[in-house]
Design a protein that fits this description.
This protein has about 220 residues and is α+β, with helices and mostly antiparallel strands. The protein contains seven helices and nine strands; from the N terminus they run αββααββββββαβααα.
């Protein structure tokens, strides 16, 4: 019986090696987005959702890396970005995701540079605010909570985090807070109502509106 003992030890060693290999592979998968960075918006880039040219439109944009692709999908607005990333069939393939920091761009003429973007999963969003994006109502996105709160104080809206945004929230977007009894009433609770200034929905006037000039000089390049 004693001579039979080495076999279990060899089996144990084999199992240890197999577990280590599996853990190594899992670690690589979990780190798949570590090297992924936002990229510049180029002339001719089109939105992955609506197909429109991105560079000519107002408001913050988004980018998303998906499994199997080395370059990110680009979105002309944060609304289109969330219309894509909140879909169950797409969520499972998402890797790194980015949105532009509204505090660092000119809303009417957003920067096309990579350093205008921030991690979308860590960002703060203002829904039901009065400034339009490429396809109408959109989310104002911010890297810092304080900037999002300052925006709400000036323009109204409701502060949300990445996980708060659902397909229902996306479809409910408008330039005003949702009415009482809305299907997204629980999420919109506390939405700050502000009277939209004249021309608020016209991108040509947004650069002259308080808080919309942006702070990043590079956005003018």
């Amino acid at each position: 019986m004693a001579r039979g003992r080495p076999a279990p030890r060899r089996l144990t060693a084999t199992l240890v090696l197999a577990v280590a290999a599996a853990a190594s592979l899992a670690g690589c998968g979990a780190d798949s987005g570590a090297h992924q960075k936002p990229v510049a918006i180029r002339k001719g880039d089109t939105c992955a959702v609506c197909g429109m040219y991105i560079a000519k439109y107002a408001g913050p944009r988004g980018e998303a890396y998906v499994s199997g692709y080395s370059t990110p999908l680009k979105f002309g607005s944060t609304r289109d970005f969330f219309a894509y990333v909140t879909q169950p069939d797409e969520k499972r393939n998402l890797e790194s995701v980015f949105v532009q920091d509204t505090a660092r761009i000119d809303w009417a003429h957003p920067s096309n540079l990579p350093n205008s973007f921030t991690d979308a999963r860590k960002a703060y969003y203002v829904a039901w605010q009065p400034l339009p994006g490429a396809m109408g109502p959109t989310f104002a996105s911010f890297a810092k909570r304080s900037d999002a709160e300052a925006f709400i104080k000036a323009h109204g809206g409701r502060l949300l985090r990445y996980g708060d945004v659902t397909p229902e929230v996306v479809s409910s977007l408008s330039y005003h807070c949702p009415a009482a009894g809305s299907p997204v009433g629980a999420v919109a609770k506390g939405c700050v109502k502000k009277a939209a200034p004249a021309g608020a929905h016209d991108p040509r006037t947004q650069a002259r509106m308080p808080g919309m000039a942006g702070t990043m000089e590079a956005s003018k390049l």
